Amino acid sequence: MTDTIRLALIGCGRQMGQNLVPFLQRLQGHQIVACVDDDLTLAHAMQARTGAARAVARVEELDLGAVDAAILAVPPQPSSALTRYLVERGISCFVEKPAGESTVVLAGLNELVRHSTAQVQVGFNFRYAETLQQLHSLTHRIRATPSTVSINFFSRHPETPQWGVENTVEAWLRQNGVHALDLARWFQPAPISKIDVHAIHRDMNHFFATILLRHTDGSLSVLRVGNHTMKFVVEVSVEGADGSTFTAPSLEQVLLEMDAGTPSRALLHSTRNLDHGWARSGFGPELEAFLAACRSREFGSSDRPSIADALEASKICDQVMEQLNFDPVQQIFVIDRAVAVG
């Protein structure tokens, strides 16, 4: 592979146009050679925007000998099928989450990648947000012993079923809230031994849930998630056994709230967001990491989300949904039980 990575963009809709290409165009060392979308109008518009040589409706129309890697931003079902097609032909992929429509599909894809020379990075962009990177680094020591990570993740969308998932709550969890599950696994990598879920609802399409993950090392992850909000919210805090509490109340600051049990409120990190969102969102750094991995052919970093990470997050989704049984008569979700893992 040459130093210049030849890229195919697959899925030329809103996510590609608004959140990926603007950051991709700020990076060096790659060339966009093809744009693919079953809506050829979108493919041609992206071709004009990026200067790609080709715009086609189907990935099968590509000359893969002229492509080193692909970036995919399509719904879960075509995403998993397209990723399989490309990996089987030796093309490494950056795939927007959740990367597949079910745990079974992701397990099969993970097995394929394990035995392939091609690699897959999944777009869990919040791992690359500068503020959360700082929080992760600053709490490395206290997370080495049992600790508690609390994550608030609220997003209005989706408010209706989408992408083949008929239940709005499950669609939200698998296709958006999965970010919170991935962050929990990143901050607390010890295996999960038990999951406990409690939820309240406004109606059948809007909910608030608290998810408690108990880890085998004694740590806890507490997730508060839902779509009962008008504002997008990401907050993460880490509480250590030494009485310290580090908090990212937004994607712009890290504070030391408690220092050995004493109120502190010290500002440890601040991002002024004058970089058009590069440091705040994580989209740019994750694409930069993907291109670097393609160039070096080294995808082994534990911080680089893989299909295996998407698979583990999907397993948590399965167990959360086991506890959320929807009663169509009362239009409520009934909490059954805590689920022991393993």
UniProtKB/TrEMBL annotation:
Record's signal peptide: none
Domain of life: Bacteria
InterPro entries linked: Gfo/Idh/MocA-like_OxRdtase_N, Gfo/Idh/MocA_Oxidoreductase, NAD(P)-bd_dom_sf
Residue intervals of the Gfo/Idh/MocA-like oxidoreductase N-terminal domain: 5-124
Pfam families, per database record: GFO_IDH_MocA
UniProt-listed PANTHER family: D-GLUCOSIDE 3-DEHYDROGENASE, UDP-N-ACETYL-2-AMINO-2-DEOXY-D-GLUCURONATE OXIDASE
Protein name listed in UniProt: Gfo/Idh/MocA family oxidoreductase
Organism: Sphingomonas agrestis
Upper classification of the organism: Bacteria, Pseudomonadati, Pseudomonadota, Alphaproteobacteria, Sphingomonadales
